[in-house]
Amino acid sequence: MGAQAESRAHLRKAREFLDAARLESERDLYTAAASSAVLAGINAKDAICLRLTGRTSKADAHRSAVSELAAAGPAGKALEPTFRRLLGLKTAAQYQSAPISRTDATKAVDWATRMVNVAADLTKA
Question: What's the predicted TM-score (pTM) here?
Fold first, then answer.
């Protein structure tokens, strides 16, 4: 699969996770919503990087994912703080026992929405 087709595939996954995050949030499943939002953001990052640079890293190190996005060009650089904040919820949402608050889940969904929208705009180009 070429980079552009792979970018579209990641965008589809990002949208699916974002839809799940919204539904989970509506059902007061805030930890699940934050987790799905993080996954939406990661897939949006992959779509953006593939679209702008033709490649994306699959490393588990989230700092490198933030750096990769920032290095992808002006659109990626503009999303760097959003992606950093979103990834900041990953450990709490996916690995820690404490639940995620409604406020944090709402922020996560908003951040993921921003990233998915940019990925969608770039993929149209």
Answer: 0.95
Topology of 3-124 in CATH? Answer: Four Helix Bundle (Hemerythrin (Met), subunit A) (1.20.120)
Spans in the chain with pLDDT lower than 70: 59-60, 125
Is the C-alpha dihedral spanning 114, 104, 102, 58 positive or negative? positive
Q: State pLDDT tens for residues 54-78.
A: 999 876 677 789 999 999 999 999 9
Write down the domain spans for the chain.
3-124
The most distant pair of C-alpha atoms in the chain lies apart, rounded to whole Å, by: 42
Strands (E), the chain: none
- What is the C-alpha separation between 38 and 57, in angstroms, rounded? 16
Alpha carbon distance 97, 65 (integer Å): 25
DSSP annotation of 100:
P
